[in-house]
């Protein structure tokens, strides 16, 4: 069986990533329909430790992991490190004597316990003396209940996660109530929804995006742009000398560096740098998600019968969040970028193979396994290729962001 593992960020009040919740499916059966949920969970635990590595999945941040009653009582969850594991107690687990005793043992070992989908007045009450974190579903609860829970748990010293936060308005509301953490797709939404033009302060960055994605890269034009941007020049030279790129010779000019990279690497490097610059006032995770989408699309191109479009597919994924980065309607941004018309159509929701692949990538990252299966089947895409390419995209994204921005020593 193949391990399907994705992650969803949990943000702190400054919109830095505090932790990731691991979303998983074992093999081709949705975890929640698995005939033996403990076997499914145990496999994910083993895969987290032995395959990609837990640190690779979370960047060393805490990992929230849903567990079953049997994993709690049997101690299987104890295979994971207490320092970076948050045990998420599902609402279906009854707080009987054996379960509560097992949780106390885990607490004694240093694990944090989080209550998932907390609802006031439910069977959750016995858990509260053991819990460190409470997750409140903002879709299932109303404003009055969210406020009451905030007041109650603030007095109890518990930390609150607002989960399923889909809009900036709900994020601001729960933040104002004192919630410490936030989970959902609110950060992928533009804060300005009116059909206005691209902000003037960022227009030149979009123009640079246009230049690097023209058919047949104009090295002279690109050299001139980079030479007049000291920050870009520095980052390019740091990138070319980065350990993972492997170049050990002298680079005597911007043109020399560009020729060494070649068109594909230039486009990818510049996309990272420009998008990070445009999103300087946004959560870092927004750029990470955009680049993850792009690389995952690109890596799945061959398996989906779209190998000749691999680079285009990178752009499709990477540009899919540019509306949130620029706070500008997606259609307005796409008018300024010379990418293929079928890519624009796919990003704007037109059905077809490109849109199907994009949907597979977005659904996988969100743990929507049923939709992944449906669209993969429509594409003739072997599901077994998807998780390994996701992990590969994750590693590429981490390295690219580190090296392209000079965050590691050359």
Question: What this model shows, in words?
Answer:
This protein is α/β, with parallel strands linked by helices. The protein folds into two domains: 3-188, TIM Barrel (Alpha-Beta Barrel); 200-404, Orthogonal Bundle (Hypothetical protein af1432), CATH 1.10.3210. The chain is built from 18 helices and eight strands. An eight-stranded mixed β-barrel has the order 1-2-3-4-5-6-7-8, surrounded by five helices. Strand 4 (85-89), helix 4 and strand 5 (112-115) form a beta-alpha-beta unit. It is elongated, with a radius of gyration of 23 Å. The two termini are 39 Å apart. The model is unreliable at 27-35 (pLDDT under 50).
Biggest sheet details: 8 strands, mixed, barrel
The secondary structure category is: alpha/beta
Q: Uncertain runs with pLDDT below 50, 5 residues or more? A: 27-35
Report the β-strand fraction as a percent range. Answer: 5-15%
**Principal-axis shape:** elongated
The radius of gyration over CA amounts to: 23 Å
Number of domains: 2
Level-2 CATH architecture of the largest domain: Orthogonal Bundle
Q: CATH homologous superfamily of the largest domain?
A: Hypothetical protein af1432
The number of helical runs is 18
Query: CATH topology of the largest domain, anyone?
Result: Hypothetical protein af1432
Helix fraction?
A: 40-55%
Distance between the termini: 39 Å
Element order: H for helix, E for strand: EEHHEHEHEEHEHEHHHHHHHHHHHH
Number of strands: 8
Strand order of the largest sheet: 1-2-3-4-5-6-7-8
Whole-number mean pLDDT: 82
The level 1 CATH classification of the largest domain is Mainly Alpha
């Amino acid at each position: 069986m193949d391990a399907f593992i994705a992650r969803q960020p949990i943000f702190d009040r400054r919109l830095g990533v505090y932790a990731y919740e691991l979303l998983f499916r074992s093999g081709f059966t949705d975890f929640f329909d698995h005939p033996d949920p403990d076997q499914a969970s145990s496999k994910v635990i083993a895969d987290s430790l032995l395959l990609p590595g837990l640190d690779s999945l979370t960047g060393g941040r805490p990992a929230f992991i849903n567990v079953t009653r049997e994993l709690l009582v049997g101690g299987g969850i104890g295979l994971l490190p207490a320092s970076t594991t948050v045990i998420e107690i599902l609402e279906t687990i009854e707080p009987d004597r054996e379960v509560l005793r097992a949780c106390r043992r885990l607490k004694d070992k240093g694990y944090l316990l989080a209550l998932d989908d907390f609802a006031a007045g439910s069977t959750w009450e016995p858990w509260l003396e053991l819990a460190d974190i409470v997750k409140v579903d903002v879709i299932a609860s109303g404003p009055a209940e969210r406020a009451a829970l905030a007041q109650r748990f603030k007095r109890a010293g518990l930390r609150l996660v607002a989960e399923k936060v889909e809009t900036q308005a709900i994020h601001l509301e729960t933040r104002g109530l004192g919630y410490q953490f936030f989970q959902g797709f609110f950060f992928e939404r533009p804060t300005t929804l009116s059909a206005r033009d691209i902000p003037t302060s960022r227009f030149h960055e979009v123009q640079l995006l246009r230049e690097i994605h023209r058919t047949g890269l104009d090295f002279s034009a690109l050299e001139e742009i980079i030479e007049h941007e000291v920050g870009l020049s520095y980052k390019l030279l740091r990138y070319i000398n980065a350990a993972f790129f492997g170049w050990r010779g002298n680079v005597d000019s911007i043109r020399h560096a560009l020729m060494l990279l070649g068109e594909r690497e230039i486009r990818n490097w510049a996309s990272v740098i420009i998008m990070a610059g445009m999103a300087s006032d946004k959560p870092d995770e927004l750029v990470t998600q955009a680049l993850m989408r792009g690389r995952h699309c690109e890596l799945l191109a061959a398996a989906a019968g779209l190998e000749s479009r691999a680079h285009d597919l990178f752009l499709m994924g990477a540009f899919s969040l540019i509306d949130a980065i620029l706070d500008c309607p997606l259609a307005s941004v796409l008018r300024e970028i010379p990418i293929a018309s079928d890519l624009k159509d796919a990003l704007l929701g037109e059905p077809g193979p490109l849109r199907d692949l994009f949907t597979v990538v977005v659904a996988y990252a969100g743990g929507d396994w049923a939709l992944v299966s449906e669209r993969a089947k429509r594409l003739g895409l072997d599901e077994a290729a998807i998780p390994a390419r996701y992990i590969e995209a994750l590693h590429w994204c981490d390295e690219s962001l580190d090296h392209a921005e000079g965050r590691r020593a050359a």
